[in-house]
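HUMAN: Mind making up another protein with tokenized structure?

ASSISTANT:
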Amino acid sequence: MTQTRHRTDLQLEHAIFDELRWTPSVNSALIRAAVVDGTATLSGEVATYPETMLAAKAALRVRGVRAVAQELAVRGRWAVATDTEIAQHAGDALDRAVDVPDTVKATVRDHDLTLSGEVTWQYQREAACRAVVYVPGIRAMFDAIFIAPGAPGSSTAASTAASTAADITADITAALRRNAGFTGEHLQVTTDVDGVVTLTGDVASPEQSRQAAKVCWSGAGVTAVENHLVVPD
């Protein structure tokens, strides 16, 4: 019988550095990583906001990393852009995104961009974030978009209004079971009357945890997903 040995935090730090260097879209020269009990903290500097997200994803790809705290500072040539210029570019990007409703708005303060408004589906919120993430000059982005399934005038009003908590739970459970990435027996799904879905149980990796949450967001009537899935030691 073979014995599985968990990586030490120091080994994980070295593995994260290797993965960052292996990621061509991230300049890892000024990035530092510290790991405590499998939780990695990234600090240092990058040139653009998208690099902060790509660096965090790279760290999460490392086997043994359970969570990542992203504390990278954005200090690139685009830092000279004014808030007005950033807001104009963000507004144009949202206007060009065909899958983002015009209820979504962008505000900028001190190079921090905040998205707000109301949408019917999670994919619309994700589309809004994708639309503005590459706007030059952003140092941080905050998602304050509210999901209101079945909002008046939406094409999904009838279907989402008819979705009860039991319906949502049953639909998500079925979706997880037919997904090739899950066996289903280690995941529990509950839904409250407000459409808030809670995931509990064990998964093999942080990536599986994110994928399970993504599956939940496809359910009609879902307003929020609370992901309490655990990656065992």
About this structure: The two ends are 19 Å apart (CA to CA). Residues 157-230 form a domain with the Histidine-containing Protein; Chain: A; fold (CATH 3.30.1340.30). The first helix runs from residue 9 to 21. Residues 201 and 219 are 19 Å apart (CA to CA).
